[in-house]
Amino acid sequence: MLDLSNGENNCKWIILPCSGNSPGKRYGHTMCYMKPYLMTFGGNVGNRITNDIHLLNVDDGIFEWKKLETTGEIPCSRMYHASSVCKHGGASGMMIVYGGRGESSNALCDTWGLRKHRNGSWDWLKAPYSNNYLPLKRYQHSMAFYHNFMIVLGGRTDDDLKNIPIEIYDTESSEWIELAFFNKFRHSSWIVDNSLYTHGGFDYVSPMISKNDLVMIDIIKLMNTNISLSKKLDKLSDMINKSGQKNKETTNNTNNTNSTNLNISTGSASATQGSQNTSKNPTPNISPTNINNNNQIMQNHSLGKYSNGNPANSNTEAQLNLFNKINLNGKYNIFIL
Fold it and tell me: Cα torsion at 84, 87, 91, 95 (round to 10°)?
């Protein structure tokens, strides 16, 4: 565990004195935090692939691992899958698992949600796919949630495809939508506000050499390349702004103070004083100068299919031309989509 209690400049790694039924030695597994638990799932334990779950309560101060027993149907054993906790919509509070590689070394494309009931029991729920679209079977990918949208990024396939599309699953409508290519695997990713960051991994140009680059994808601009997703964003933006306005009015009536609304069209949270975003076509600010005004900007190669300008269907053949490379003092690279 990285201890940041003394600030970033004095942080240090410590080994927690854990007890109980630990996950043991393994790789290709995932770990998520679903308060108050750290949760591990799946992976390779050396002589087999597993689908077990282990919990560690980090709030009680005991640090005792427990193996979780679930009821009902369960996902098959897998490794190199991706998992994340959904915090919005009907899947809120569930650990979601997508894809991976099964016991026969086959890539998977199923989605499962792990949930806890009020009586203390846990079970898995297999996600339905409503639009007859079967997502790409993949492993060594990453996954992150933007509100109720599950964004699946990169990975490898059984057919060793070199062009891997970004796919988004809407947990509210159970629809899958295919977007631009993102051709990396074994990377990691995280969402901050309206930006999706990925770091490291490998690409298909030099698949034996790991990367030290940081990629930033503007989620709003990415989703606005698809008509269906653009409409969903409009509804999400209206919902967030109405909720923020309601909270602001409540706060003003009680404390006579201002509230902070999430402005989905700008990629950041902005303090407002009676104003409300009414834009129906959010246009995010993706200027590289927002990261560092002194950076030198260079054009880089295209990621693949990407629709530029007005929202369009994902099969548009327009090439991505807003992909810039920035060198930050020789330390690492940032790409902006």
Answer: 30
Nearest to 224 by CA among 179, 172, 286, 269: 179
- Count of alpha carbons within 13 Å of 86, Cβ hemisphere only? 24
- 93: DSSP letter: T
Phi-psi region of 221 (alpha: psi -120 to 50; beta: other; left: phi over 0): alpha
Query: pTM higher than 0.70 for the full model?
Result: yes
Beta strand pairing status for 260-263 and 268-271? antiparallel
User: Is residue 20 within a helix (H) or strand (E), and if so which, with residue range?
Assistant: strand 19-20
Distance CA 73, CA 110 (A): 13
CB 126 within 8 A of CB 112: yes
Per the CB < 8 A criterion, the answer to whether 214 and 207 are in contact is no
Whose CA is closest to 224, among 171, 149, 118?
149
The CA-atom distances, in angstroms, between 19 and each of 16, 61, 273 are: 9, 11, 51
Cα–Cα dist 228/168, whole Å: 11
pLDDT single digits (tens) 190-230: 999 999 999 999 999 999 999 999 999 999 999 999 999 99
The DSSP bridge pattern shows strands 64-67 and 19-20 to be: parallel
CA 109 – CA 315 distance, rounded (Å)? 21
Between CA 108 and CA 10 the distance in angstroms is 42
Lookup: tokens for 259? 């509230």
Contact 266, 295 (CB under 8 A): no
**Residue 269 DSSP SS3:** strand
CA distance 166 to 308: 16
Within 13 A of 3's CA, how many CA atoms are on the CB side?
A: 8
Reduced to 3 states (helix: H, G, I; strand: E, B; else coil), residue 105 is coil
In the chain, what percentage of residues exceed pLDDT 70? Answer: 72
Whole-number Å distance between alpha carbons of 283 and 54: 42
Residues facing 30 on adjacent strands: 41
CA angle 235, 236, 237 (to 5 degrees): 90
